[in-house]
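FORM 7B: Structural annotation worksheet

SECTION A. Query
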Amino acid sequence: MPATVFEDLDSLLSAGQRDLGSTEWVELTKSVIADFAAATWLPGGPEGEDNVAPPMLLLSLTNRFLPDLLEVRGASSGVNYGTGPVRFGALPQAGDRIRASALLVESADAPAGVQTTVQIRIEVEGADSPACTVDSLSRWLR
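SECTION B. Predicted structure
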């Protein structure tokens, strides 16, 4: 179940800034890194280290984690609209445990629905700073 549930678009629109919680910790496996590299033709981390998560893998995981953080039941659909700033920190390695935490930064009226900015942080267990922070933009349609 998602950390935060909004029953309709009006409740999302009036929510203001809100902590959306965190996902469960999951292990970042070598096979996830290898599968991503094979699917995208992007090598592992710096200098082709195949045990290090490529930055674009971390960015893609923000969309994998978003449904675990936020559900809008009154929307007919939710669409990834793009991103605002994206920042990368120290890259996790195979075997590290990661999770996402999120903050609803803004919600605003948009054609046919509501547009949100959700700041998603990919955290590495035991690390002092996030491996990736992205301002994820979504449209929630009526």
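SECTION C. Observations
The radius of gyration is 16 Å. The first helix runs from residue 9 to 13.

SECTION D. Sign-off
Analyst initials: ____
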